[in-house]
Specification:
Blueprint lengths: L15 H14 L7 H12 L1 H7 L12 H11 L1
Length: 80
């Protein structure tokens, strides 16, 4: 099987919808869509770039144990 390219770093709010779409396709094609939310979030943060790790670390969630991928994506959209 060929290597599946990750969506690449998210650079601006103009790319956020495109990144989200590409990332969702990436999750589906790599079978990560079936994994736990925590693993999906880890994949997102890993592939979105170093700056996003810094931003992610500033986000505050109501219940850290129940964070979903949708919560994290919404936090990034709000950030931009």
């Amino acid at each position: 099987m060929d290597t599946i390219k990750s969506p690449g770093p998210l650079k601006s709010s103009l790319q956020s919808k495109m990144f989200k779409t590409a990332f969702n396709f990436y999750l589906q094609t790599t079978e990560n869509a079936e994994k736990a939310q925590k693993e999906q979030i880890g994949t997102l943060i890993s592939y979105s770039g170093e700056q996003h790790i810094d931003w992610y670390n500033t986000f505050i969630f109501k219940d850290e144990s129940k964070i979903t991928l949708a919560d994290v994506l919404a936090a990034f959209e709000k950030h931009f």
